Fold Lrp/AsnC family transcriptional regulator.
Amino acid sequence: MTQDLRKSSTRTARTLRTSGPRTTAAALDDTDRKLLALLAEDATRTYAELGKLLFLSAPAVHERARRLKKEGVIKGTVAALDAAKLDRPLLAFVHVDTTSWAVTRQLLALEELSDVEEIHTVTGESAMLLKVRTRDTQSLEQLLARIHAIEGFTGTRSYIALTTYLERGPSPDL
Amino acid sequence: MTQDLRKSSTRTARTLRTSGPRTTAAALDDTDRKLLALLAEDATRTYAELGKLLFLSAPAVHERARRLKKEGVIKGTVAALDAAKLDRPLLAFVHVDTTSWAVTRQLLALEELSDVEEIHTVTGESAMLLKVRTRDTQSLEQLLARIHAIEGFTGTRSYIALTTYLERGPSPDL
DNA sequence: CTTGAAACGCGCTATCT
DNA sequence: AGATAGCGCGTTTCAAG
């Protein structure tokens, strides 16, 4: 594997910020964004197929994809699974109200449970927000019981999803 | 492409429910679940590599993957993008309190916006829950303004994510 | 249902414009 | 920086246990 370490030299940036992005944000042209949108929706397409859609040759697409991967814009390629088929049809968002920040560390242990899909600290009355997917209400109750076993929080509020109309990952603006 | 339509005949189901699963939920053995977990975390692995991890040959893995795809357990393969690199670092959960269910239909139009990643109807005081990712607080405000333009809701409550400790898709129990 | 071997197609590199 | 040509490899299929 040849290491091509040249930095993207001078790529046409669309948005010109006065003092440059402090943290991250990559320089992407319109073709890059279109490519990312296509890959975010289906990453199994061949480079030839992508080339047709982007009016480019297959190697040209490959080069862009390689660059975007190296820059970290594409974090990886994963299989999207059907939660219901995995016998986990119950989706819930759990707000956890905490009194001390020490609780955060305890909650991170929940990462081990495959039921837990997301863990965030958030603003507002609740300090933490969990996205969990369980088999049924009993499994959810067990999970909540485990959270209640932790010291230093006021309580939890759960919002059970009735219907999911949209669920997708990050995608560029186009 | 040869169409192999034989149903998975008699596969060893681990959990034996008295009256069968009413809706969905596929019959998966331990190897299936391990394979799904591996693919959910990285779908770029070669079948040979997966075979080593599962103590199986490459075609055997391929056959299982094909079956899981046909059954819909694997919905697709997508590229996971870095939201920050896409210049969309602000993650927020927006609860929308509605008075009538007619609002639901209006909110579904928000699907067009790439900022909006998830739309659910939920139980609890708020009727709908949105997961949105914007460039900054101003973009979020614009989105909220658009929601407020819709008739028939009491208000919105937004929870801005400070830190995301875990964010992944559905994965089997193992 | 799994294992091993063979052929096709695609990813990837190198070269050139 | 994109297009064309070519090699190597992985996927995919087939027959056999």
Notes: Residues 37 and 171 of chain B are 6 Å apart (CA to CA). Chain B has two domains: 28-80, 83-160. Chain B touches chain A through 69 residues (CB under 8 Å). The beta strands of chain B are 74-81, 90-98, 116-122, 128-134, 153-167.
